[in-house]
Amino acid sequence: MRCRDIEALWDETRGRCSRSLKIEVTTHLRACPHCQQLYEECEGVAYCLSCLPLPEPSCDLTRKVLEHITTLRIRLRSEPVVLTMARTPLGRLYVGFKGQRIASLSFDTGGGFEAVRRRVELRLRRPVVRGSAPPWLQATLDRFFRTWRVDDHVVDISDLTPFEQAALRAAARIPPGEVRSYQWVAVQIGKPKAARAVGRVMARNPLPLFFPCHRVVDASGALHNYYYGLEMKRRLLEMEGYRRAR
Fold this sequence. Notes:
Elements: H1 3-14, H2 19-31, H3 33-51, H4 59-76, E1 81-88, E2 91-98, E3 101-107, H5 113-124, E4 128-130, H6 135-147, H7 162-171, E5 180-181, H8 182-188, H9 195-203, E6 216-217, H10 230-240
Parallel strand pairs: 1-4, 5-6
Antiparallel strand pairs: 1-2, 2-3
Helix pairs in contact: 1-2, 2-3, 8-9
């Protein structure tokens, strides 16, 4: 067997090959100084390569991995929001729930079920289906309108971003009948320069009443904007006992 034959068979010999071929290559290697030198050089390079750290993923690979994770998360969010109607002292409410927790509240503004369904689906990024109201849901609403408070274990804001969740939980700490500013909420969550961002969170609040964005006002104390109109915001505050100082 010639040296060039050995070089051509080297990788195959190190991998899977017949026993007779391996013996023939090994016999030549032992007797040939030239091939022995080549063998040592190749093995040395292979060893050095094995000692190198793994390369950092490229930006493009990182983006693809993150996109893949996002796709998987969306697929895992298969549990739909069940949307139903309930009666309250403020009129009819569209209520969306997942299991034993309420995920959305919407006042009935006359737009119809389909309009509310699309809005909830867009906000929570989940499928929304029509369903009937379980007994616990009406009991939860009745208790809220007696106390103006709700237990944390019956609400679900897990589909929102951490910033949105923090802002809404800060708003829930405002006592009934009192108001605080957007700046106050921003300070409470450790983002004192994020008052405008807090305002956007309140404007897109999927659980008004339970996370009382109606208790959040501008720096002057004016009621400012409210998705369901300033009259509804004023009515809610008055029902809670709020009286603006003159």
